[in-house]
Write a structure and sequence with these properties.
This protein has a domain of about 240 residues. It has 19 helices and 19 strands. Helix 13 packs across helix 14, helix 13 packs across helix 16 and helix 13 crosses helix 17. Bound molecules: 6-diazenyl-5-OXO-L-norleucine.
Length: about 550
């Protein structure tokens, strides 16, 4: 007996390592936001407090991507195995109508759905921060918001990404006086490295920390927002703000080869797409295949799940979604049976609709704390700088998330995504999203990941998960060149280096159209906890080098 005890004692450190990581890790799209999260962990906060800190800091330092005027999804995993999904997605205002973005002749008015007051959904992020902090945090909200307030008051450093993204929106931003004053001082975009102070957003964050939702969704501040949006052609009312709630939903949890994947439920389209992708691909022995047959099968699976996205998905509070069917292995087997292993299936041969896209606004971050609690969060204002409208005295951009609805069946949105009635505009409804914060609870590794990129979010997360399951290091996973197919346009978009010449030719021989991308896409943020030795890794997508940062509590920084 004694002999066995010795063996057990020898194994003990292994179990101990598996129970808790060696330290904390954070990866976000901006190093100032990563530092904000680390600061709150050091002040006694858990991963969820740090998520509030990083989210609020991103609102300050990355106004092009997300913020208090937008929404987001918080996927939280506690070290006891419980997980919850906080849906802080924007909602259509109560005055919204099915055809609000159609001209008299029935054509879609893209300008209205992306610019100005009408484009803005009711913001959800502030309510999300309050809910995450009050229910799951350990330190008070005002403590978690402190670093973001400091960044706003003392000034944050204008990054290469801020500079690149403002180029897309200069003209529209110039038309919003408060936005122009802040982000186009003297009529010109700030130079990289300039210090930008934003006392208005500091005040809003301070009030949120002091009085919670009341400070934003009611009273004089709510009135200021409503008046500002209406003056810019919008239809918000005080009721819209008063009625807004961030809601808790059950995350989707499924198994792939004995490892658990926890991910975003509707109104995200991403989680159910991942379920279907892995279900379809579980019928093949992918790791044993050569690159071309591997990519062939992955692309065929992508094609089919993006078709289903367009046909079936929308806000689960408004439409009946066939979740059981879409997640069924039998349904996946049916889709698999339609895949030829030697030839591409033209999208036109599948019944259904059309889609297309890209982008790097929206922001994802991933956190693991030293106790093994995890947060995977994706937040957005949709297009760069949202609807390009800032209401005087607020310091944040409003979103243009109304464009994520299917403004008219068959008419693509800004990302080329097309939808059907399930995602049509209705008052109080949430537009369908592709944001896919995801957590892998594997046998050897636990990981949290996600990315921006509109319709390309889902395939990035899928490729990321596949690479983690293959055993790649965090930095390898975020660096690896990507490919993407979304049913329509019927082509494989390929980042430089994803496929060599001969692989591309072979895929073309099989009937695929291969389209080399002009620019890389995405901005993946990944943390991994290796269960064998307890070590943690954090990696920030190198596509925005010097801007994002992965950081562990030992101080190692991986870009
Ligand atoms: O929720 C969505 O799917 C979109 N609003 C995300 C937009 C996005 O990722 C833009 N950045 N690339």
């Amino acid at each position: 007996m004694k002999r066995y005890w010795n063996v057990l004692l020898l194994l003990l450190p292994l179990f101990a390592a598996a129970n808790k990581p060696d330290g904390a890790a954070i990866a976000s799209a901006n190093k100032q936001a990563t530092a904000a999260g680390m600061e709150v962990l050091a002040a006694g906060g858990n991963a969820f407090d740090a998520a509030v800190a990083v989210s609020a800091a991103l609102s300050v330092v990355e106004p092009e991507s997300s913020g208090l005027g937008g929404g987001g999804f918080f996927l939280l995993y506690r070290n006891d195995g419980n997980a919850v999904f906080i849906d802080a997605r924007e909602k259509a205002p109560l005055g919204a109508t099915h055809d609000m973005f159609l001209n008299a002749d029935g054509s879609a008015d893209r300008d209205k759905s992306v610019n100005g007051g009408l484009a803005a959904g009711i913001p959800g992020l502030p309510a999300g921060l309050v809910l995450v902090s009050e229910k799951y945090g350990r330190v008070p909200l005002d403590v978690a918001l402190k670093p973001a307030i400091a960044l706003a008051e003392k000034g944050f450093l204008w990054s290469e990404k801020n500079a690149a993204m403002i180029g897309w929106r200069t003209e529209k931003l110039a038309a919003s006086k408060p936005a122009a004053k802040l982000f186009l001082p003297g009529g010109k975009a700030p130079v990289v490295g300039a210090r930008i102070r934003n006392p208005d957003i500091a005040r809003v964050l301070r009030a949120l920390g002091r009085s919670g939702n009341q400070s934003f969704y009611d009273g004089p501040f709510a009135k200021r927002l409503v008046d500002g949006v209406r003056a810019a052609g919008g239809i918000w009312s005080l009721d819209d703000l008063r009625q807004y709630r961030a809601v808790e939903r059950e995350p989707l949890r499924f198994d792939y080869r004995g490892q658990e994947i926890i991910t975003a439920p509707p109104p995200s389209s991403g989680g159910i797409a991942l379920v279907a992708l892995f279900n379809i691909l579980s019928g093949y022995d992918l790791p044993t295949l050569q690159r071309v047959p591997q990519v062939h099968l992955m692309v065929e699976a992508m094609r089919r799940v993006y078709r289903d996205r367009a046909v079936y998905l929308g806000d689960p509070d408004f439409v009946e979604l066939p979740m059981e069917m879409l997640s069924s292995p039998h349904y996946a087997a049916g889709l698999r049976a339609s895949i030829r292993t030697d030839k591409a299936t033209p999208s036109a041969m599948l019944p259904g609709v059309t889609l297309a896209n890209e982008g790097t606004d929206t922001s994802h971050f991933s956190i693991i704390d030293a106790e093994g609690n995890i947060a995977a969060v994706t937040q957005s204002v949709n297009l760069p700088f949202g609807n390009a409208l800032m209401v005087e005295g607020t310091g944040f951009m409003l979103n243009n998330e109304m464009d994520d609805f299917s403004v008219k069946p068959g008419v693509p949105n800004a990302f080329g995504l097309i939808g059907e009635d399930a995602n049509a505009i209705e008052p109080g409804k949430r537009p369908l999203s592709s944001m896919t914060p995801t957590i892998l609870v594997g046998k050897e590794r636990i990981a949290a990941l996600g990315a921006p990129g509109g319709s390309r979010i889902i395939t990035q997360v899928f490729l990321g998960l596949s690479a983690i399951l293959d055993g790649s290091s965090a930095i390898e996973v975020v660096t690896r060149p990507r490919f993407h197919h979304q049913f329509e346009p019927d082509q494989i978009s390929v980042e430089p280096g994803a496929l060599n010449e001969s692989e591309q030719r072979e895929l073309e021989t099989r009937g695929f159209k291969v389209s080399p991308a002009e620019r890389p896409w995405g901005n993946m943020q990944l943390v991994i906890w290796n269960l064998d030795d307890g070590s943690v890794e954090a990696a920030s997508d190198p596509r925005w080098k010097n801007v994002g940062a992965g950081s562990t509590s030992e101080g190692s920084i991986y870009r």
